[in-house]
Amino acid sequence: MIACDTLVLCLILQLCSADRRFPANFKFGAATSSYQIEGGWNADGKGESAWDSFVHEHVGDIKNCATGDVAADSYHQWREDVRIAAEMGLQFYRFSISWPRVLPSGFTDKINKAGVRYYSDLIDALLAEGIEPVVTLYHWEMPVKIRDLGGWSNPLIADWFGDYARVIFSLYADRVKTWLTINEAISICDYAFTKGHFAPKIKEPVFAPFLCNKHLLLAHATAYRIFEREFRPKFPGRISLANYELWIRPATINDTELAELGRQHSTGRYAHPIFSKTGGWPPSIEKLMLEYSLRQGYQRSRLPPFSTEEVEFIKGTADFYGMNHYTTSLIRPAKPGEGPGIWDVTGSPELNAILESPPDSKYGVSPILPIVPEGIREQLSWLKKEYGDIDILITENGFSTKDYELNDLERTEFFKEYLEQVLLSIKVDNVSVVGYTAWSLIDNFEWLDGYTTKFGLHEVDFSHPNRTRTPRTSAHFLACVIRNNSLDVPDSCYKHKYLADLATQNGSYVARGVLLLDAILIYISFVFR
Ligand code: BGC
Q1: Between 20 and 30 A from 203 (CA), which of 186, 284, 475, 515?
Q2: 310 membership: H or E segment, kind and range
Q3: Could you tell me which Pfam families the record lists for this protein (predicted)?
């Protein structure tokens, strides 16, 4: 009888554990971006980017007056990045190329050989370790000359970005098979121009977000079409962009329609033109923007129209869906006199709506990123409902901490909870999620927060000249998940590994002492459990 019960239990357990396995072709990776990690801001002929000039000219705008001048020094320490990625068993590494490191003026008049070699060596080293390079062309490093010519407000940027993309494809398409043109269009267009406190430090919330929205989509599509026409026949590869997806829930049952409008205003404006069957702006937003603009006294919509040719040119320019996801907000109508503020963080004047955090949320350090694991599953299902059964690559998801802390149990829990929801999305909702990218491989320059907010699977010692990288518990955890291709990993696989790392790294008696103390504490908690 006992044997029989045990057998049943074993079968159930096996089923459970089979359920927590990822599909065989599912891939795990981690991401970084050039400005946030490279440093070497003016090394070997690199040109200046809008972020270089922003941090130098507006010193007080960044916490502790930090800059990305050295950052994690990946311009020199990139072999370390490859080593730690390999140690984790990452199947891909998502990094970005700094436009002015390769084209110092932003244009093709001069190609910087040192910059070309830097990325070439990085790609070769990744491939030698069996790690697929996933390359983003633009993670916010606009060459200053292009910024000064109007940046995303100038329609010619579509051609200039296309020229840059062509140079990069011709250099690396023989080895890079997965491309992302632009990271987080909504952060570039809506957040930057409504906040006005982010490079290029222009506050113009009326026209700039919408001009930028249109020109950025044209720039993306230009790069896609160049790849499709000139490179894909010889160098097969897939290409998309990484959109930032805030999942929006109604605050009350009465706000259901508003929530859908909110999703179209955030996700839809950057995805509908590319991923929908019809192309063009989401109809609900096109209508809203026209009516609102006319009411404001303008002669036409502030959301610039697409010509029929432009609709066709942009439509279908993605081979998969790239999704950055961090959080979920509730939406409700603004009360009289309430200022809706910044889209898509606090609200939208166009929608006359306020965004707020779900009550009782847990947080990392970032007050604008409440932790709502179920939100990622809801967002994934919405994408499938809107745009059909397309492959979705989660291109970023991560958790912030502060201070130096190797035993990041909260971040580890975050990854567990979000990955559980991703599994449910794949297995229960039948969404084709093909991979997951943790943000970030290492601590880095977290934009306005400087180095005070840390997203790294690896801690970076910013006081050390080598910017030493050390794995956190979350890195050990993800390494175990990758090895098992399952969320079922024994605690022993990753817990307390950080102490062993410390002991070997320092060889110090202190670390060994901490290790011993920790073992005693585990023993005591076991005895008095
Ligand atoms: C951006 C990253 C940033 C991360 C955490 C994402 O929106 O792509 O550059 O570091 O969020 O704030």
Answers
A1: 284
A2: helix 308-314
A3: Glyco_hydro_1 (PF00232)
* Model confidence pLDDT, tens digit, residues 129-151: 999 999 999 999 999 999 999 99
Q: Which helix (H) or strand (E) holds 92?
A: strand 92-96
CA distances, 399 to each of 84, 416, 417, 431, 453 (Å): 19, 12, 12, 24, 10
Q: What is the 3-state secondary structure (H, E, C) of 163-182?
A: HHHHHHHHHHCCCCCEEEEE
Name the superfamily (CATH) of residues 23-489: Glycosidases (3.20.20.80)
What are the CA-CA distances from residue 11 to residues 8, 155, 480 (Å)? 5, 61, 23
* CA gap 435, 3 in Å, rounded: 40
Cβ(210)–Cβ(288) below 8 Å: no
Q: Which of 48, 396, 446, 459 is catalytic?
A: 396
Nearest-atom number in ligand 1 for the CA of 183 is: 8
> Whats the size of the chain, residue-wise?
529
Prediction pTM value: 0.94
Mutate to test the pocket of ligand 1, among 365, 394, 439, 446 (most ligand atoms within 8 A of CB): 439
354 by DSSP, 3-state: which?
A: strand
Identify the pLDDT of residue 12. 47
Ligand 1, residue 449: give the atom nearest the CA. 12
- pLDDT, position 521: 65
Nearest atom (ligand 1) to Cα of 446:
10
Q: How far is the CA of 6 from the centre of ligand 1 (A)?
A: 48
59: pLDDT strictly greater than 70: yes
Q: Which residues contact 326 (CB under 8 A, 6 or more apart)?
A: 244, 246, 369, 396, 397, 398
